[in-house]
Amino acid sequence: MLQRPLAGHDEIDLVHTFQDRTGLDRRLEIDKACGKALTVPSISGPRTCVRHIGYARAVDFQTSLFADATAHSAAVLAPERRHLSRGAWVDVQRDWLTDPDDVFTALVERVPWRSERREMYDAVVEVPRLVHTYLAEDPLPHPALARARTDLSEHYLPELGEPFVSAGCCYYRDGRDSVAWHGDTIGRGRTADTMVAIVSVGDPRRLLLRPRGGGTSVAVTMGHGDLVVMGGTCQRTWEHAVPKVAHSGPRLSVQFRPLNVF
Ligand SMILES: O=C(O)CCC(=O)C(=O)O
Ligand SMILES: [Fe+2]
């Protein structure tokens, strides 16, 4: 772990302040010259300071431990399965990514984020999050994500019968950003069993799941570096949402999907 900017690489962009798990104030900085993320003890002053192209708002996230950048990008896949009703299930593996901080900064910096607008009744409203989708042939913004897609494809192949190809990305800038109740039912998820694998970095947010037509909802917290996979009939017999919350720092999610699932 680097404690201070490297000599000669002092042009720093994108500064996040946060408390690590031991309660210490630290800063995460991107060195523009070498592209590395650096963590330094935070000096007193405003908790938040951010500057990056096209988006400037308070950024403050609680991080897990910083991992050694040379380590493997993700732990061995061994998720725990929770069976829901009607053939739906959800797999969870906490702290799957080895260096979620690096993935966080890469996603913030390298994804060509765009805001979407949707027609709703008589008005055109802004979709409350930033989005971008990488298709099968597009290079992903961080090697750990390419590795994650390969590992997920291998692990789930016996059950899924095909690889994960696309990577949908969402940027929840703060607690006001959200996803309303829906199933990923455009394409094959409407009629066939499939899987959607979500890698999450940044502040924890809750993924709520509820049976279509009513029933008790189930909450899965998606934390920094966690993996959550929705599978079986989940997209057509259940719905999911990421509700708004009063306070949250940024969270980014990458959803890996097989061909023709949206
Ligand atoms: O942010 C997430 O993890 C879920 C997003 C989602 O459900 C979707 O984009 O279809
Ligand atoms: Fe979804």
TrEMBL record:
It comes from the Bacteria. GO terms for molecular function: dioxygenase activity. Signal peptide: none annotated. Gene3D superfamilies: Alpha-ketoglutarate-dependent dioxygenase AlkB-like. InterPro entries: AlkB-like, AlkB-like_sf, ALKBH3, Oxoglu/Fe-dep_dioxygenase_dom. Residues 163-260 form the Fe2OG dioxygenase domain. Keywords: Dioxygenase, Oxidoreductase. PANTHER family: ALPHA-KETOGLUTARATE-DEPENDENT DIOXYGENASE ALKB HOMOLOG 3. This is Alpha-ketoglutarate-dependent dioxygenase AlkB. It comes from Nocardioides alpinus.
